[in-house]
Fold each of these.
Amino acid sequence: MSQILHRTPTEIQKAGWEALKKQLGLPGALRFLLQYDRGEGDYTKLRRKYFRGKTVKNLVNDMRKEKKI
C-alpha cells in the first residue's frame, strides 16, 4: 500500500486499470468504466455549504452518533 503513495497520478491510473482487468477481465473492466459517472455541480461549493461552521471534531462526533443508531 505504501508503494501507491510514491506513484504519479498516471502510474496510479495504470495500476488501477490493470487491477480492474485482472479482477473483472477486459469486458468487465470496460463495463465498469462505462458506468462511471463524474456527477455534476460544484463539489467544493456544496461541501462548504454543508460543512460551514463544522470542525473535524464535530464531524467525528456526528459520525459516532450515527454509528450507534
Amino acid sequence: MARAKYRIDLTLKERKQLEKITNQHKAEQSMVRRAKIILMADEGIKHLAIATALGISQENVISTWLKRWLERADWPIAERLKDEPRSGAPDKFTPEQLCQIIALACEEPAAYGRPITHWSHRELAEEVIKQGIVESISVSHVGKLLKKTDIQPHRTRYWLNAKADERKDERITDICEAYRKASKVENEVFISVDELTGAQALERIAPDLPMSPGKPQAREFEYKRHGTQTLIAGINVATGKVQGICGDTRTEEDFVGFIEHMIDSNPGHEVYHFVSDQLNTHKSESLVRFVADYCEIDKELGIKGKEGVLKSMDTREEFLAETGKGIVFHYTPKHASWMNQIEIWFGMLTKKVIKRGNFLSKEDLKNKILAFVDYFNETMAKPYKWTYQGKVLTA
C-alpha cells in the first residue's frame, strides 16, 4: 500500500487544541474546516473521503493544508491554519499622502468652511482633492483607508473633564471607615442614601409574546407614557435592608422628609450616619436646619449666601459632616457616587423591575417599586462585602 504523501501524526496536545477550535461556536468557519482536515487526516481518512465529508469540491485543497500544516510545524496551532498573507496591489498613494488624508480626517470640517460636525466619506474625499493632496480618490477608497487606520469620524463618545476633588482621599477614607464600622458600633446606624430619578411609567400597547425554545420573550416596541416617579431610598449598611419613599419630585424638602422618615422608622440609635453624594439638595439649608433642630444645637446658623453655617455649600457640608452630634453625613468624592452602596441596589431595581416593566400609571409604577423593596428585604437582603479601601483598583 502506498504511503500518504503528507502523513499527519498529531501529538495529544495538538489534537486537543484542534478539537477545541472545531468546538468553538464563534471560530471562523475556514479555521474550523482546516482543523477538521488535519484531524481527519490524522485518523488515516483518504483525501476524497475528507473532501466529501466536509463538502470540499477540490481534493487539492486537502493537500494544500496538509502540506502547510507540516511546513509550519514550529508555528502556534492557530497560525498554522491561517491563510498566507496576500500581496495585493500596491497602494497608489505615497506614505506622505496617506498621512495627510488621515490628518485631514482628524480635523474639524468647520475649519475648511463646511458647516457640519463630522466628515462623511464623500465630503472627506471631496476635501482631499480640493486641498490638492491627491488628484483623485474614490469614496470607497477613503472608507477603506479610515477602516485600516481605525479612524471613525461617524462615531463619538462622552468623556468627563472632571475637576479634581481636593478632598478625594479624605472622603474615601471616611466612607470606607464608615462601612467598616457599620456592623461593629453599637447604638449607631449607617445608611447609604440617594435618589433614583426619572423612572418612567411606560405601558406597552400590546401584551408581550411568551418565550419558546430558541426564541426570547418578545416585547411590543410602542408604548404610552404615564409620567415618571422618583425613588428616594436608603440601604442599611449593616443589614442590607432597603427603605424608600416614591413620589413625583426630589426637592430639598423631599430629601429632608426622607431623612426624618429614616430616623423615625429606625428608632433607638444615638447616632444616625448617612452616606450621600454631593447633590445640592443633600447640603441644603432645610437639611441644616433639620439636623440642628434634631440635635438640639442652639446657635445662630447665619444667612444663606452671606454668613455663618448657611453661607455656602462648603460651610453647610462642614456642619453636616461634623462628628459629635446625633446626625452625621459622609459625602462621596465628586464623580465617585459609585462609592454609595445604594447605587448598587438601584442597578438591581432597574434591571429586575423597571427596564422590562409594563406600568399602567405612575401609581402602578410606584406600587411595583415599593413591592420590590419588600420582596428584596424578605428574600435577598444582606450586607454588601465592601473590600475597597481607597487603593488603586487592579484587574
Amino acid sequence: MSHSQFNSRRHFLMGLAGASVVASSPFRASGYQSPNDRPVFATIGLRNQGWAITSKSFKFANFAALADVDSKVLEENVGKVEKAQGKKPDAYKDYRKILDRKDIDAVMIATPDHWHTKICIEAMRAGKDVYCEKPLTLTINEGKLIEKVVKETGRVFQVGTMQRTEFNNQFLTAVALVKHGRIGKIKKVTCGIDAMEASPVIPEAPVPEGLDYDFWLGPAPKVPYRALAEMRKGYGGGVPLYSNGHYSFRNWHEYSGGKLTDWGAHHVDIANWAIGASQTGPSKVTPVSYKLPVEYKDGHPLVSDQYNAATNFEIHAAMPNDVLLVITSEGDNGILFEGTEGRFFVNRGKITGKPVEELKDKPLPDGAIEEIYGGKVSENHTENFTAAMKTRKQPISDVWTHNRMLEICHLSNIAMRLGRAVAWDAQKRVIVGDEQANSFLGRESRKGYETQA
C-alpha cells in the first residue's frame, strides 16, 4: 500500500462501522467534563489481552468503538462488548476512524508491539488519553518519541504493567520490603522470565480469511504470511501454533522482543522499581549465555522462515549501587531479591521467604504500601488510569519509568543479537563506543506507515 493510499483511508470507513460519527454520542451526551462522568473508551487490537483489558474496564468506562484488522475477531468482540454493557459499540478496521471521533476520551491499545508507538502518538495528538499494553515500544528511540509527545500534549498515559496494581499487593509488598531495608543492602535481583521456544521451518501460507495482513504488518517490513496447519490451544488459541502473526508475533524481532520484552517487561519493571533505578539505568548489559534459534550476521537473522528471538539466556545488567540484575530463562518465573540480610521470592502466585514470614511479628509501617503506590491502592489497573484521567496526573505505570526499565530489556536483545556486551550511558541514553549497536536503538518504518512525532 502506498503512502497516499494509506492516508486516503483516514476519511473512509472500512465498511465495518454502521453508524456515522456525530457530535452527540449515545454513550455520552455532553463530553467528559465532570469527575462524576463515566469516560468513553475505545479499544484498538482485540485478541487476547485486548479483550482482557476491555472486559475488566466495563465498571469504569463505556466502550463506544472497537478496531481490529481481523473482521472475525472484530465481530466476535463487538458481540461480547454489547452483551456486557447493553450497547453495541461501533466497529472499525481502521483505527484512525476512532481517533477522528470527538466523543471518545481514551483508547486502550493491545495491538502487536510494532504498532504501539504510531497509534499511541496519533491518539495523543488527537486529544485522547492512552492505556497501552506492554511492552510499550519496539525500540528505545520509540520510547523517547512517546515521552516527547506525552510532555507536549499533557495526555494521561498508562502502560499495562498491571503487576504494579494487581495480584493482591504481592509486588507492592516486595517493593516495600526492599525499600524498608528488610533484607539489608540489595546485592542481586534475579528475574526468571521463562525460555522461548524455537520453531520448525514455517512455510508461506494463505492469509486467513478476514485478516487484512498488509495492514497488520503496518510499519514492519512487507513479507509473506507464514503458518503451519497445527492450531494453538489454550490462551491465545484459535490461530496457527507456528506463524509470523498471532499469537506468535512475540517470537519475531520484526514485531516484538521475545521473552525479554514479554515477561521481562513485567518482572524487570518491579525489580527496577524496588532498587530505586526507575530514573536511571544500567551501566553495562552482558549476555553471559544465550541461544538464538537461527544464524545471525551483524545483528540480523539470515533466514526469514523461523522464529528469531532468543530461546535461552542469562543476561547480567550492572545497576546503580553495585546491584547485579540477572535476567534468565532458567528457574521459576518470578523475582528473587537477595540482600546482605536475607532474600525472598515473589511472583503472581506467591511471595515467600523469611522476610515475608517475619511480617507476622514485624509488619511494615502503616501506610507503607500506599506510600509505594502514591496513594490509595487500586484493585484494577484501569481504575488507576481513570482516576488519573480525572486528576490529570500520570498513573502508576507511567511512560518514563516504563521506558527506563524497558531499555534494559531492549539492550539485552541488542547484546545477544550482536554477541557482545554493551555499555550504556543512562543520562544520554546511548550505547557507548559502539556505532553498530547504536544503530539498533531505532528502526525504519515501512513507507506509508511512518510515525510523525
